[in-house]
Amino acid sequence: MASLYHDRMPIPPPRMPPAGRREAAVVIVGGGFAGLNTALGLAARGQRDVVLLESRTIGFGASGRNGGFVFAGYSLGEKALLDKAGEAKAARLYRRTVEAVDLIRERIRSLAIDCDCVDAGVVWANWFRDARVLRDRQRLLAEHYGADWEWLPADALQAFVRSRRYHDGLYERNAMHIDPLAYARGLARVADAAGVSIHEQSRVRMLERRGPRWVVRVGDAEIETPQVVLACGGYLAGLDHRIDRAVLPIATYVMVTEPLGDRLGDCLRTRAAIYDTRFAFDYYRPLADTRLLWGGRISIRDRSPRAVQALLSKDLARVFPALKGVRVAKAWSGLMSYARHEMPQVGTHGNGLWYAQAFGGHGLAPTCAAGEALAEAIVSDASAIGDYADFGLAPVHRPLGYLAAQGTYWKHQLADWMTSRMEG
What is the mean pLDDT of residues 8-13? Predict the structure, then answer.
C-alpha cells in the first residue's frame, strides 16, 4: 500500500541484490531508519565494509509511511520513564533523543537532504478542559529533563489552531516535521557515498552461526561477517526467535487531503505539527501545497485504503467541521513495532548479533539515537547501549498479545470518551 510520499517522488534507481560470496565487517538487515542510522553511524566512526540488506525497498515500512514528526522522547511517557529507569538514566535516555533531533536537523542541512523539512515545532493540544495534565507534564519536563515547553493558554492556541475541540496546549519548539520517505532515501544516498553497500529486494533467507562468525544468505549469495544488526521493525525477518517474539507489529493509519487553498488557513494558522492529549490521539500537519496530512488510531488490523479513509475522515470532521466531506487524495496504513514496555529494544546477545526495534509511535528521533549508540557499541564501546538494558526482549505472546494490545487501546479510548462526556 503506497503512501503519498511514494507518489510524490520518482522511484530511485534500484540497488541490486548481492551476488556470490563475500566478507563484510558488519551486515545490517533492514533499510528503515534504524538500519540506515546505524550504517551512517558506523561510517562516521570510520568503519568500512558495511553491508545493508533490505527485503523490499529503502523506507518501505514504517519509516516511509509515518506522519513525519521529529521530536524528543519515546512512546513511554516521561513520568513512566522516570519511574522505571531512575532520574539519571531517564535523563540520559531523553537527552539522546534531543541530540538526535539536532543531528537530524544538521544532516538535513549539511547533507542537502530535500525532505520538505518544516522546522516550526510541535503543539500538544489539550482535548480536555482540565489543564493539570499539561501543567504537570510541563513541570516534570523542566525539572527532570531540562526541557522547556511553552504554555499556550486557550486564546493563544485558538489563534492558530482554530478548533473548538481544543482548550490549551504546550509548544515544543525543538521539533519539526518532514517527508519521512524522502529523508530515508536521502540517508541511503549519503550512506552510498560513504561506502556502505546497500542492496534492495534482498530478503535474508538464512542467518547461521559458523564458528566465530555469522553467515547471511540472500538467494544464492552468502556474506560472512562477525557482526549482524537486525533492524526490521514491524516487518519481522524470522531470523531470531528471541528478537521477533519481543515485538507486536501494530498498524497505524494516515491520509492526505486534496489541496485546501484558503480553507486550510481557516483551520490552521501555524506551520507546526499538532497532536492531542488523548491516548487515542489524532496527529496532523500542514503540507506546503495546502494539503493536510492526518493520522491516528492504532490497530492490530492493517486496513484497506478505503477503510482508513472512512475512519480518519470522521476524526478530521470532529476537529474541523468545516472540512467535513473534503476529498481525500490518498490513504494508507503501515506496521510499527511495539514492545510491552513501550521503549525501544536496543541491545545484543553478546555474540556479534545486535538488534534495534520497537520504535513505534515516536520513531524518528529514537531510531537516530539508537543508530548512534549501536554504532559506538560495535566500533569501540559496548557500554554505549547500556542505558537501554532495562528495556529488554520481553515476549509479547502473540497472538494473545494482539488481543491485549487491542483491548488496552479500546479501554483508553473509552476512558477518553467518558472524560469528554463528563466535561460536557
Answer: 87
List, for residues 131-165, the tens digit of each pLDDT value: 999 999 999 999 999 999 999 999 999 999 999 99
- SS3 (DSSP) at 405: helix
Does the pLDDT value for residue 126 go beyond 80? Answer: yes
Q: Judging by beta carbons within 10 Å of its beta carbon (0-12, 13-18, 19+), is residue 61 exposed, middle or buried?
A: buried
Distance CA 38, CA 421 (A): 46
- pLDDT tens digits for 282-292? 999 999 999 99
CA distances for 51 relative to 20, 48, 204, 374, 412, angstroms: 14, 9, 12, 15, 42
Instruction: Provide CB contacts within 8 A for 411, sequence distance 6+.
Output: none
Give me the chain's average pLDDT, please.
93
The number of beta carbons lying within 10 Å of the beta carbon of residue 399 is 10
248 vs 328 pLDDT, higher one: 328
Q: Which residues pair with 274 in a beta bridge?
A: 123, 284
Contact criterion met (CB below 8 Å) for 256 and 262: no
Peptide bond between residue 399 and the one before it cis (omega within 30 degrees of 0): yes
